[in-house]
Specification:
By secondary structure, the chain is mostly helical. The protein has 3 helices and no strands. It has one domain.
């Protein structure tokens, strides 16, 4: 849900406050984003939808997840 909120619903990093108590949450977020990004890519390929890199909805969430996963305290 957090991954989807970050990518599709315009949530910002403050959403992470709600899940900060979960051990290894950074890893869970990275894994969720990988699954969703690959699934989205596969569906886009299937439907031949083209989108430019400028409108890639995954970039902010992936950047945030990478920062989070790199933190040893999460």
């Amino acid at each position: 849900m957090v991954a989807d909120a970050l990518v599709w619903e315009g949530a910002d990093s403050q959403l992470l406050d709600a899940v900060s108590h979960i051990d290894d949450f950074g890893q869970y977020l990275v894994r969720a984003l990988i699954y969703r990004a690959v699934t989205d890519w596969m569906l886009r390929q299937e439907h031949h939808a083209e989108s430019g890199a400028d409108d890639d909805p995954w970039v902010p969430a992936v950047d945030l997840a990478c920062q989070l996963a790199a933190r040893p305290d999460l």
